[in-house]
## 1
Amino acid sequence: MSNFIVSARKYRPAKFVDVVGQEHITNTLKNALKNNHLAHSFLFCGPRGVGKTTCARILAKTINCTNITPDFEACNECESCTSFNSNSSFNIHELDAASNNSVEDIRALTDQVRFAPQAGKYKIYIIDEVHMLSAAAFNAFLKTLEEPPHYAIFILATTEKHKIIPTILSRCQIFDFSRIPVDTIVTHLDAICKTEGITAESNGLHIIAQKADGGLRDALSMFDRLVSFAGKNMTYNDVLSNLNVLDHDYFFKVTDALLSQNIADALLLFDEIQRNGFDGDDFILGLGEHFRNLFVAKEIATAKLLEVSGNLKERYLAQANIAPINFLVNALRLSNECDINYRMSKNKRLTVEIALTKMCFIKNALTVSSSPNSAGEAKKK
């Protein structure tokens, strides 16, 4: 049996052009190479799983490539590239600051910096999770980072830029990586499915992308898990059951019940959801997200904020047409209040049921508050 390679490693980009969703970073780095404007220290920061370490490795490899392509990508054929690809490069060093965060570790690194590279132009040091360095280690690193030898380049990566001391930040060229959009992740997963011969429903891939919250590595990890579960044919229901996600259909049905003031149907649907093993907080969070999607679907200008598949988008647009804007605004407020109160409540089920009851009679509350009699009584008081 051959060794399985997870998708995050198997499809890890080897060139700038392969990096997903970070074009503003890769284009800047390629232009820096083109114009020979390379800084001596970089700081890559952003959420987990968006390509910081990958871009650091690609940049390191491209800097030392002896046969760089016309579009300033590494050739992957020269001795420097092949040695890097086989993890045997003497000029590119990687340090995990999470486990090597003491002042002695940094002093050992700065001692290495004094020696010029035996082959190639540069010695490149990639320090991952740099925010984990101790205060003493940061201070020991300052002078080397400010005035390194001409052949030394430092690429630092972190998920928590705010933990890095200002004196380090001021010595680095900072690149902020962004969360990867849902549609971009879906396109990437779809391409992997075609390569691997996997059939996957578009709605299912959208659920994976939404659950990943902008992190491609998280999306690929979930994708691998689902392939193990479903095999070569991945359905929408497979994704829902494996990732423990509520079907959108429930939220459409609950909203229909609330709009028609059918509190019995709303409560029975919530009871069914709980009997299926879902927590009340998962339901109220999902319902709040559903109301938000209906709210942005009310206007053509904001409908583009819907990060859902085509079929689902049509359902949102249809339900948004029949949902009054006052209902959606108040339902959003009530779902948010319920989410806040849920954590402190001792009777959690009742908390959700009260919220559903209030949502069901939003129209009545609005009618009473805007009636002339109620306004006159309020004025007398």
## 2
Amino acid sequence: MFFKDIIGQENIKHRLITSVKEARIPHAQLIEGRDGQGALPLALAYARYIQCTGEKGDDACGMCPSCKQFSNLMHPDIHFVFPITNKKQRSKPICDDYITEWREYLNETRYPSAESWQQFLATGNSQPQIYVHEAHEIIRKLNLKSFESEHKIMIIWQAHLMNTACANAILKLLEEPFDKTVFLLVSDKPEMMLETIRSRTQRLQLRATDSEAIAADLRDHQGLDTQTANAIAGASGGDYLKAMELIQLNSEQELFLELFIALMRQAYARQVKNLKEWSEKVANLGREAEKRFIAYCQQMLRESFIHNLQQPELNYTRPDEEQFLSRFAPFINEHNIQDLMELFRLAERDIAQNANGKIVFFDVAVQVIILIKKGNEMR
């Protein structure tokens, strides 16, 4: 991973690069941000840049012995800590038990995430964590002399998953670090970490990735046309993984758009019988797809409301969605938008609590009849 591989986050990149050029590398840093904002890739690119011994400007050279070792994730002075389960039935489970899987995962994953790592490990219902035994490994490894580089680097991914005993065990290292030791902690839930850990780090908070940067990447690497790339980037909320998920769900979204249009048209025409059949069709999608459909409806309602502002740059829709919204949007206005959003929020809650989908969606359909009428009358 190089800095050039990370989408956006230019200010953070500049800050990290400057710390190396000016030889002011903090001994403990906490990179806070969602997986889709590139938190772990930034830590990896930074570690490579620190250890690079070749000619480097604003990125590692990629050619020196250090960079070549890092490309295989086998640099002797860079160590990894990450959440695991004890599926291998070790008496003292540590990350090195899974280092082969870890290297394979990182080599095939551009933007790692907690969810995809768990799927890669096939952990089932077991929740990964960083066990107390890992603290002893951290201390042991950092006690060793550097093999090839000036610095020893310890990357701790999903640092909030260190159990309390593990976190307490490394406190002294953070307070009194070994010379030329760098801790890079990465977390998307820093509030779950011990305050004593957070207070001993220099914190870097990532922001949502610029939508233009995501759109450019989608055009260049995913082959999307400009309008589709802009729509997906806007809907991603600055999260690259969310953008990739939206691409994968493109065919599903075509079905969702069809169902959304049917709901709104039949509700406007007060076709109760058809809406009963509609609710049964949606309920047959399955619970997870039902939840995704509800989220899609909420997104379309937001886009409809924003469409009325007549500022196209604020809308992030595909061409087929825009075609429908251009006619439908006036029915979603300040008189019904809040009630509609609350209606779907409650539906999402009920579905998550295993309520009967047919009943939930038929109730939604009936309420939409009332709310569309209310919005139409107040236009």
## 3
Amino acid sequence: MIRSRELLRLADTVLLPGFVGTTAPGWLRRRLADGLAGVVLFSRNVDTPPQVAALTAVLRAENPDVLIGIDEETGDVTRLEARTGSSRPGNYALGVVDDLALTEAVAVDVAQDLAAAGINVDFAPAADINSNPDNPVIGLRSFGADPALVARHTAAWIRGLQSAGVAACAKHFPGHGDTAVDSHHGVPVVGVTREELAEVELWPFRAAIAEGVRSIMTGHLLVTAYDDELPATLSPHILTRLLREELGFDGMIVTDGIEMTAVSGPYGIGGASARAIAAGADSICVGGENSDEAIVEHIREAVVDAVTSGLLPEERLVDAARRVRALAAWTSCTAPPAARTGDRGIGLTAARRAVRVTVNSSGRVALPLTGPAHVVELAPVMNLAIDKGMPWGVGEPLAKLLPGTTVLRLEEPDVAAGLPGALDAAFTGADGRPLVIVVRDAHRYPWQLEAIEVLLAARPDAVVVEMGLPGRTDLGAVHVATHGAARVCGQAAAELLIGAL
């Protein structure tokens, strides 16, 4: 088969690459003008709202129909607010509140910020059900563990986002919640039956499709009930037969980051990309650090080679490009409101409503706090979906409310030398002061639980604030669960500690 110009343009149409920097590199502008359908923005591309708006305007000048996508889930996974921490809690907090109008309003709020920045596709919401509390990559990104709850909030988020002119993308099909492996590093296995998958994991995706979601993102998961050899991203049994034919989804299917080990490991980035399109995907998300022209060229060549060799039928590539263009047409025709509407403080309102308090020993602690406290924050290493260095915690907002409050942040290496000696600074700083211990998914990290045990043995009056999944609420004289580590979740916890919530 001839490697025609049209074939090369078709291959360009199904690529959504990332890039490095806060301005558009020349290679990207050139490729957009020559047929590249879109780009993906990451936190490395974001500085300020005006900068992002200027960046997207440059991209759109090269291609008026460009798709500009971003992972803006809010909460732990935010790109627009990675430098400051999210002004909205994540899905889990919204699921705890379980107010569909609130979830929809938060999604509208997100969409208005995205639209103002020139972004027209949001790779959200995560429609995964957090069936496994030890899941290393989903957790708070899920609305919860109940399929019905996750389904109705998935639909509400999509309804809010798309009402403001931004295309939603439900992920990670067919459901990443009941896994114990991070697909950035390996292949998670979902070993349930087809009946169990239909009753649990697929429920939110059916709700998303019924709500008219414009896009669905694949998960790099081995779902043995449908395919015991290929992960979902590369499986025609899952993408074509299940998602297209059984569930009736007619929008754009986009892959999770194609460079992730679960799919690129066996086939390379180019081979995985071609196989994903052949399986039924329409667009290849190229993220991570694989963000230069050489990688984009390599993937395009791999897709074209797959067509000429017969691995990828040309009509499948044509269909994929058609669906990408259809989404671009929808974003062009669905203009966002001219003026911003709604409550700019909706995120903090949601975070406040999501806080839950368990009093374990009311006689040992005096709440609200009236004087400076000492805050010890135990910080685990987070998964790759969460930006390193993103602000979180209770110490900073509490210090603003109670001047003189001191903060000590400890990581696993800080306490690995041995307890309790490594916590001497925590005890010293807490002399004569209320002690607040802040943790994040403590149930998943033995070193956090050990540190808590030592601290509480010396200070049974301490308050424990859990900013991850609240696996245990019996820790501390008072246990505070924020159900999220977003900036507003820390603010809400601080307000509660001083009696302002």
## 4
Amino acid sequence: MFRFFNAFFNDLGIDLGTANTAIFVRGKGVILFEPSIVAINKETKKVLNVGAEAKKMLGKTPANIVAMKPMKDGVIADFDACESMLRKFIEKVRSSKHKFIIPPKMIIAVPSGITNVERRAVKETALKAGARMVRLVEEPMASAIGVGLPVAEPCGSFILDIGGGTTEMAIISLGGIVITKSLRIAGNEMDEAISDYMKKKYNLLIGEKTSEDIKINIGSAYPLEEELTLEVHGRDLVEGLPRMIKIHSEEIREALKDTLISIVEAVRDILEETPPELSSDLVENGLVIAGGGALLRNIDKLISQETKLPVVIAEQPMFAVVHGTGKMLEEDKYFKEFSQE
């Protein structure tokens, strides 16, 4: 009987990220992973596209259409747009056989550093988008659960989650967060740093998507065994004409230097505040990196060099948080202990 009712609940675990939104459906796994972008007709207020289709429109829309990111630095920047985006995503994950006869329960991951007002905004947006109940979980805890760290054990675990809008880090032991830090410096700042570098060095104006492509294709945090090159197209700021240049991975590493230094310094700050007994655990257990930023080449080598700790990149790092919310849906011990009103 319980399984019968579960088919109609289709409860959801959601990583509502600045760059991407991922949705876990209980009993089915991760069903949706799309960019947190919505395209809206400014005159009619009608939502034209969300997710991947809206991302294709970034920087290419006519005057009456805006393609935007309703999330900024891990929190909601545009409530109406975020509600519309979330509602559309929920419609996408609905089963063709089992509609949400009863509205779904949602567990949503939020940055550890957000205010009570921002937490209420997330809950209200989810309720308006069709949830019957909303529980929140801090992103570093969800990420640690998602990558399989022993969060309930009497030992120290260090999770570093580098997302699009925030970098979340925490020392976790005995089911609680001992020390946490939330930086509003992450993947988006890396993209901006690349864009600024291209302006200053080459007088070349590039778009947001091009900056991200450069980071993905040749970005690195530490010297590579074989350095990479990439052809980049943009607009010459002097002549105003289209232009192509070839750039090297060493240059992009230099462009990312300040952003990475900020993340490394925050990691060091947490380590300096960690109680001695937990510090000894970290020497053995090391640090796990999750989030999209974990995919930056050699970031594990940089963090390991600067902290003297063993560093591991999580499996499927971009899904760490949403997998954590999924475990909380499917295992009562996680739901009762770690979700918050």
